[in-house]
């Protein structure tokens, strides 16, 4: 059984003390692939070097909306050139965050639109962050057209999920679905098409319920898979195979 972690910030400082050991734990747990999405311009070379050293780690380059204050116009301009010289499996992490107070909305919108243009130009899928912004993300994806990708750590409605599927997007689910209180998310998990689902950890953030308050890591992905499989009434093996195939189709067959 192989699991694919479609969203893990394995390059960040939280893994500095035991990155090699954490990677080995992930492999031992059956995690055979990870997408490592960037959060800022400075992280691009670090992610490239990390993924070049490990065949099961795959880079995505972009500018995270939560750090919009640190992104300069030349950073988004550099993304186009960077992707020409440095192959990636996706553009991201990018998107919109209207949950965190103090994050200016208009610069986020401009940055996100630029990512959509870059992804379309390079024929790459997007890794999208959307908090209290799913409806606007859908609107912008529909207006742009011809895109694919994943909305990670999905927090929208079932209806919005189906709109995303119709646009060629999948949804990523991780630790939050393992909490008993996540009733809305659990209902969505039961009803969405299996071929539109990706697994993720978002490590080092969003640990599952059994690791509450701890640093998250990709070796915990099996617990996410177990919960989702149970909710859907299928085996973990069936879920693992389907989500592995989904990740392969999105990130490598585009």
From TrEMBL:
The keyword Membrane does not apply. The keyword Hydrolase applies. One of its GO terms (cellular component) is cytosol. Pfam families: TatD_DNase. A divalent metal cation 1 binds at residues 7, 9, 93, 202. GO terms for molecular function: DNA nuclease activity; hydrolase activity, acting on ester bonds; metal ion binding. InterPro entries: DNase_TatD-rel_CS, Metal_Hydrolase, TatD-like, TatD/YcfH-like. Keywords: Hydrolase, Metal-binding. A divalent metal cation 2 binds at residues 129, 152. It comes from the Bacteria. Belongs to the metallo-dependent hydrolases superfamily. TatD-type hydrolase family. This is TatD family hydrolase.
